[in-house]
Structure formats: C-alpha cells, structure tokens
Amino acid sequence: MILIADSGSTKTDWRIIDADNEYEQVTTTGINPQYLDTDKIYSIFETELLPQLKEKNISAIYYYGAGCSSPERNRLVEDALSRAFPGIPNHVDHDLLAAARALCGHKPGIACILGTGSNSCLYDGQNIIDNVTSLGFLMGDEGSGAYLGKLLIKAYMYRELPEELATSLKNRYNLTKDGVLDAVYGSDIPSQYLATFAKFMHEKRKNPVIKEMIYENFEEFFERHVSKYEGFGELPVNFVGSIAFHFSDTLKLVAKKYGCHIGVIISSPSEGLIKYHQELLNMQSA
C-alpha cells in the first residue's frame, strides 16, 4: 500500500492505494511547514492520522504540501513522517508539482493553485520550468481565499462596506477589532482565519461590492502571476482549489480579459494524483 497526501494549509487529504489500485481516503488538519515545526506536524500525524490507519501496511509515502518549497522546509515534514512511520520511505514535494501532475498530466500548460493560499507554475509536460515567486500571506497570495478575506475584513474595519452587508458580516462572525487582530497577528496560520470569510463572500457574491472584490482578487492574480509566463495566451491555464472552483464564473471573466484559455478547473488534485500514482504502480509491477 502507498499513502498519498495532498496537503493545504486548511486540510490534508490522504489516499491509501493498494496493489489492486483500490483506494481509501482519510482527512486531517492542514499542514504548512512555513508556519509549523516538526513537533507540531508530528502531533497532527499522531492524533489525527495514525488512528485512522490502524492495520494498514504502508510501504511508501508520497506527500505533496503547501509550503514545501525548500529542502529545509521539506525536512520538517520528512522528519515528522519518519517519526510517525519509522522505516517507511517518504517523498516530500511541493503542492505545485501535485497541481501540475493532476491538471496537465503529460502535456505542457500553466498550473495554478487558488485555495487558502495561491501559487502557479509553467509546466512542460514533465517538469516545472518556471515559477513566479509566491510571496505568501503577508506580501502576496493574490487570488486566494486568504486574499479575499483580507479585502473583506479591511473594508469592514475601514467602514467601507454598505451598512446592511457590514451588519450581516459582524453578526455572522461576532467580529470585534481585538478579535480580528488577535486572529491575524496571534495565530500560527492567519491565512486560515481570513480564508474562512470566502464562504460569506460566495453567499453574497451578487452584491456589487463583493462582486468587485472577487474580480479584483483574480485580476491581481492574472496580472502578477499568469501574465508573466511565456506563452500564457496560447497555453491552457488550469486551476485547482476551492476558490477557483467555487468562483469559476468570475475567474473565467478575468481570464477572458487577459486573453487566456482556461483548460480545467477542479476543486482538488486528488483524482489526478491517484491516476498518476496508479500508473506508476502498474509500471513498477509490470
């Protein structure tokens, strides 16, 4: 059996694939080594993952995760996996590679992640050949759920929202200045908190103010990321993530403005990753 992880900052989907290409799925809290150290990551494995894997004979682990963008960060996850699964080989890669494999398969294209955070790359059908730097929550994450939440909360705190919308938001989340500041500046993963407001924005997406924020969010992403790739007007631009999936109508409008052709928009890369690794298993057993 192999274990495949697709991890974002909010949740991690784990798939167990057996020799017959059958699979099961379990879910845990999201993991991002940009914000969590090895001990905190291991604690998630110990309390949430291992109890769901009793009597599973895991032979290898393939982990794709947000924040796994350097050998140092990858090692935090690798060490936690080695503690949780001693003696079992693990392979830790960026969630961007997972997105490219799931979205593009063996064909060239642009792969984009729009979930709690955001990222993108140019993929040649085998490898990532270009990546516009993702600056993370504080300086970037354009197009993401956290960026949407930031736009909304700033407008609320600066008294820029229509009264009815502001009242609805305040009552829904019991917002206070101190509560917001504590959640943003006192949390290990502030992007998670801000991304929770994306649900409210989806429900209110026909409101002109919210509609403009959603458009601005995607416009920033195309301007600062997608438009920087060579051939962005000819190659398919593909998206994975809850924000891309649930706000796809606006995303398509912005893509049209930039002369881009959208390939596929999916909520999760899991099915594509399962297919990729099933093919890998078949090749290894042939």
Question: What does this 3D model show about the protein?
Answer:
The protein folds into 2 domains: 2-88, ATPase, nucleotide binding domain (Nucleotidyltransferase, domain 5); 104-285, ATPase, nucleotide binding domain (Nucleotidyltransferase, domain 5), CATH 3.30.420. It has helices spanning 38-49, 71-84, 95-104, 136-139, 145-157, 163-173, 177-185, 190-195, 198-203, 208-224, 242-246, 248-257, 270-285; strands spanning 2-7, 11-17, 23-29, 60-65, 90-94, 109-114, 118-123, 128-130, 236-240, 261-266. The longest helix has 17 residues, at 208-224. It is of the alpha/beta class and 286 residues long. A hairpin with a 3-residue loop joins strand 1 and strand 2 (11-17). The strands form 2 sheets. Strands 3-2-1-4-5 form a 5-stranded mixed beta sheet, with helices on both faces. It is 47% helix and 20% strand. Helix 3 (95-104) crosses helix 13 and helix 10 packs across helix 12. The protein starts with a strand and ends with a helix.
Overall structural domain count: 2
Structural class: alpha/beta
Measured as a percent range, the helix fraction is 40-55%
- The percentage of residues in β strands lies in 15-25%
CATH class of the largest domain: Alpha Beta
Major sheet details: 5 strands, mixed
| CATH structural architecture of the largest domain | 2-Layer Sandwich
Quote the average pLDDT: 91
Order of adjacent strands in the largest pleated sheet: 3-2-1-4-5
Q: How many helices?
A: 13
What is the approximate shape? globular
Report the CATH superfamily of the largest domain: ATPase, nucleotide binding domain
InterPro entries: ATPase_NBD, Euk-type_GlcNAc_Kinase
GO molecular function: kinase activity
Protein name: N-acetylglucosamine kinase-like BadF-type ATPase
Keywords: Kinase, Transferase
